[in-house]
């Protein structure tokens, strides 16, 4: 017996569908063949009845006595083998029949009624006395346009019914054989599906227990192969994510340890006293700088956590994007001057309005421009190009820095990913920037060539008022 599960469901459903289909076909076949044989008998008897009626019309000029005496002659001429022939008057009384037995009973079956109406009638039922199933076919015999007699053929259906019963048994036997073959086939089909599923389930159970080195092996068909490939890909991604997480923990631990070491060292040094004001001032500046660095790291992690949990709340207002970019340049001016890098804003001269959270949008461009300066050589330039279109505004931040290889370019926006972990940071900057841009209804693209430079393009929707003004200017 098949165990409970998807295998049993497949077998039962497949078997049930084939069973219903076979049952329907056999029922239709049996009724069709029964109707065929019954109609054949009816056509044969009705043709003889029609011939008898036509022949009887030749004697329409005879008087009634001659008509009655001719009836026995008609029995001899038109009787059939294994068939009883009766001549009945219009009241349903049997005047004469081919069996020779007298029948005083009045016949009132439906074939008689149809014959009196001028049609060829058929009746199937049980013969009184014997109880066997018969078919009766009746046709009117007319004299001078008046229906005086009814000719009635009666034949037994018992032999035919036996043959039909044998055909039914044969059809049922064939159906049972087909169902047996279908059952075996469906069990094989179920096993071909269930066995791979069991293998995949066993592997997934090991993965759930933390063993991510196992993989689904073997070649499967169709959706099962897709499922196996997806599970293997998921395991690879989890391993990759765990590696990134471990690298991030290692990196962030180092990033946190460095400023904490500086803060702790200078605080212990300053607490010992015996320092002149200049040394004390320098120590306090270092403590402040490292504290700011710690705050930046923690805020970056908190922002990423909020974005991942969809808890980042934006305070939207109408923002002049050109003015925001100018403020961004001023914020990074000192860092750029230290490397002799020129940062300039080109493109639109007029205000460009967008609906955005000014603080978060400034965070986006500060991160992009800061990266451009960080990864550029000395005496280079960073250009912010502002362009306004019908419904969107484009900001392209271009640098002539070290660039990004094609291998790393596809992953540079992934969380925790760092092209060079030795440069410091959490690897969350671009991931946060990307999500903030998307929260504002825009998108960010990065193009880069190793050793040539990088261009980060941010596209944002214009404010509705600015869209209207742009269209009016075109008119």
TrEMBL record:
SUPFAM superfamilies registered for this protein in UniProt: ATPase domain of HSP90 chaperone/DNA topoisomerase II/histidine kinase (SSF55874), HAMP domain-like (SSF158472), Homodimeric domain of signal transducing histidine kinase (SSF47384)
Catalytic activity, EC: 2.7.13.3
GO molecular function: kinase activity
Keywords: ATP-binding, Cell membrane, Kinase, Membrane, Nucleotide-binding, Phosphoprotein, Transferase, Transmembrane, Transmembrane helix, Two-component regulatory system
Reaction(s) the record says it catalyses: ATP + protein L-histidine = ADP + protein N-phospho-L-histidine
SMART domains on file: HAMP, HATPase_c, HisKA
Signal sequence residues: none
InterPro entries on file: HAMP_dom, HATPase_C_sf, HATPase_dom, His_kinase_dom, HisK_dim/P_dom, HisK_dim/P_sf, HssS/ArlS-like, Sig_transdc_His_kin-like_C
Parts of the chain that traverse the membrane: 12-37, 167-190
Domain of life of the native organism: Bacteria
EC class name: transferase
Places the protein is found: Cell membrane
Primary subcellular site in the record, as a coarse category: membrane
Membrane topology of this protein: Multi-pass membrane protein
UniProt entry tagged with the keyword Cell membrane: yes
Domain HAMP, residue spans: 191-243
All copies of domain Histidine kinase, residue ranges: 251-464
Protein name: histidine kinase
Organism this protein belongs to: Paenibacillus sediminis
